[in-house]
Every structure is written in C-alpha cells, then in structure tokens.
Automatic annotation (TrEMBL):
<keyword id="KW-0055">Arginine biosynthesis</keyword>
<keyword id="KW-0963">Cytoplasm</keyword>
<dbReference type="InterPro" id="IPR001057">
    <property type="entry name" value="Glu/AcGlu_kinase"/>
</dbReference>
<feature type="binding site">
    <location>
        <begin position="66"/>
        <end position="67"/>
    </location>
    <ligand>
        <name>substrate</name>
    </ligand>
</feature>
<dbReference type="Pfam" id="PF00696">
    <property type="entry name" value="AA_kinase"/>
</dbReference>
<dbReference type="InterPro" id="IPR001048">
    <property type="entry name" value="Asp/Glu/Uridylate_kinase"/>
</dbReference>
<dbReference type="InterPro" id="IPR037528">
    <property type="entry name" value="ArgB"/>
</dbReference>
<keyword id="KW-0418">Kinase</keyword>
<dbReference type="GO" id="GO:0003991">
    <property type="term" value="F:acetylglutamate kinase activity"/>
</dbReference>
<dbReference type="InterPro" id="IPR004662">
    <property type="entry name" value="AcgluKinase_fam"/>
</dbReference>
<feature type="site" description="Transition state stabilizer">
    <location>
        <position position="253"/>
    </location>
</feature>
<keyword id="KW-0547">Nucleotide-binding</keyword>
<dbReference type="InterPro" id="IPR036393">
    <property type="entry name" value="AceGlu_kinase-like_sf"/>
</dbReference>
<keyword id="KW-0808">Transferase</keyword>
<dbReference type="GO" id="GO:0005524">
    <property type="term" value="F:ATP binding"/>
</dbReference>
<dbReference type="InterPro" id="IPR041727">
    <property type="entry name" value="NAGK-C"/>
</dbReference>
<feature type="binding site">
    <location>
        <position position="88"/>
    </location>
    <ligand>
        <name>substrate</name>
    </ligand>
</feature>
Amino acid sequence: MTTQDIHSHAHIIAQALPYMQRYDKRRVVVKYGGHAMGDPELGKAFARDITLLRQSGVHPVVVHGGGPQIGSMLKRLGIVSEFRGGLRVTDKATVEIVEMVLAGSINKEIVQSINAEGGRAVGLCGKDGNLVTATKLQRTMIDPDSNIEKLIDLGFVGEPAEVNPTMLELVLKEDLIPVLAPVAPGADGETYNINADTFAGAIAGALNAKRLLFLTDVPGVLDKDGTLIKQLTVAKARALIADGTISGGMIPKVETCIEALDRGVEGVVILDGKVPHAVLLELYTDHGVGTLIRP
Ligand SMILES: Nc1ncnc2c1ncn2[C@@H]1O[C@H](COP(=O)(O)OP(=O)(O)O)[C@@H](O)[C@H]1O
Ligand SMILES: CC(=O)N[C@@H](CCC(=O)OP(=O)(O)O)C(=O)O
C-alpha cells in the first residue's frame, strides 16, 4: 500500500468501524439462495463479503440453497420434478440428486470461492456431527376436487427436528466459516431434503444469531405498489400475509423470519442477493438495503 492508499482507506475504515463494533464477535447467518448464485462476479463479491465479515470480527455462517441448480441436474438426468406449496416433491431418486448437488457441488463451490478470497471455509450438511436431524414433513393442503384438507406426501422432504450445534461451535471457535447444505439425516436412516430457508431459520435460532439475512431475487418485502418496505414488525408482516400483499414463495420466507425471531434472533432481513456486496451494504450502512423484520 502507498501513503495515498492509507489516507483513502483510513477514511473508509473510520466510517465502517461503528458498524463493525455493532456485530463484533456476533453470529450472522446468511441464507444464500439458488437464484442469487448464477453470476460468477456476484459469487465472487459474495465470497469477499463473507471473508471481510470474518476479518472484521463477525462470525458469519452461510446456509445455501440451490433449487434451480437441482432442477437443471434433474432435467439432465431426465427426472421429472414438481413443487407443491413451494416444496419439491422428493422421491428416492430425487433425494440422491439433491444431496449430490447441495452437499456436493454447490457446497464445495461456495467453500472454494470463500477460500479463494482469503477466508477459511468448511462445508458441512445436517449429517456432519449430526448438526441437524430431520423428521418427515407432514403437510396438509386443500384438495381442489373435494375441498377437504388432506395430508400430502412430499416424499423425503424433512423439517428440522433437532439442531445439535456442538460441531458448529467447534468450527466457529477455530475461526472457520461454516457453509451449510440443507440436507439432514432422519432417525429412520433416510436422507431428507429441507427447504434452505427453514434450515437457515433453525440454525440462526440455535446459534442465537444477531442477524439472519435472506438473499433472494427481489429487493425485500414489497408493498401493493411494488415499493420496498424498509422495516416491518411481526404483527405488520402477519397482516400483509393475511391481506395477500405477501404471497407465493415470500410467505414461507416471512414465516421462517417470524419463527427465527421467536427463537431469539435479534433481527431478520430479506434483501436482494443480485446486488453486488448486498451483505456488506446491509450490515455496514445506516439503513441497510432490504426489509428488516423485528419483534
Ligand atoms: N410482497 C412481496 N414482496 C416481495 N416478493 C414477493 C411478495 N409477494 C410475493 N413475492 C414473491 O416471492 C419471491 C421470493 O420467494 P422465493 O422465490 O421462494 O425466493 P428464493 O428462491 O430466493 O428462496 C419473489 O421473487 C416474488 O415473486
Ligand atoms: C424441500 C425443498 O424444496 N428443498 C429445496 C432445497 C434447496 C432450496 O431451498 O434452494 P433455494 O433456496 O435456492 O430455493 C429444493 O429441493 O429445491
């Protein structure tokens, strides 16, 4: 660095310092969605943000999805895939591919890109150290023919039963960055596919995280006119679900946010993962860039 570099960087560091202190030694769980992953430059910016967080004293934990990537692999293999209520119907052949893509290629790609930026990342899934165990998800839906609520069988789709953070605590103590794939073992010996938002919510709750960030493909929660809502209380978020402003994939996401807040997470943010350096912009600016949901 030159003297001139030091002069310009000193100014930036002075500005960032109060924010860094706010999150110092605190856990921040970042859910990195499959839609936010496509572009290599964005992936690099994400890896750099996560590395910088660790270097500035924060303990980031990455939970990733990979829905679109699982979809392309299933297509290549000629396996038909369908979603019900936002969840992938997962038969035996599908869960093998889900594990291969999530705990295999995507997980290792993220680990490698964080390490390439100078971070020290370790990839795990629910199976490692029994981090998260799963039970088969029991989901009911209204049957359109009979209009009666019926139990639907989504196959090997699970929900977190127990989070056992011992392994994560060890990883965090060693100053490593955990990168987690939402695949978990059941007590029945089967492998379960868990929605990545749900998995991230359970991890953030178990770690008592200061923040849980959901990187998605919209700027945050939008109102009826499509304008970003910067802050939401739980009561207001529930009202927006009830009046239909929040719909589709945003419903389970916001519900996961509410559950995470109930489990003691201080604040949850939904933000656009397609904005370069979204994570740093959210944490290290006054008003953030997404929707902050608080109790
Ligand atoms: N009020 C709302 N504000 C923002 N997005 C909404 C809203 N209601 C529904 N959505 C939809 O929710 C989607 C995000 O959910 P989802 O596709 O499941 O995200 P991801 O794949 O990142 O987990 C948005 O792309 C948008 O189409
Ligand atoms: C049960 C279920 O639907 N699991 C998801 C897991 C991946 C995921 O959630 O990825 P995104 O965050 O990119 O959507 C799936 O199979 O697509």
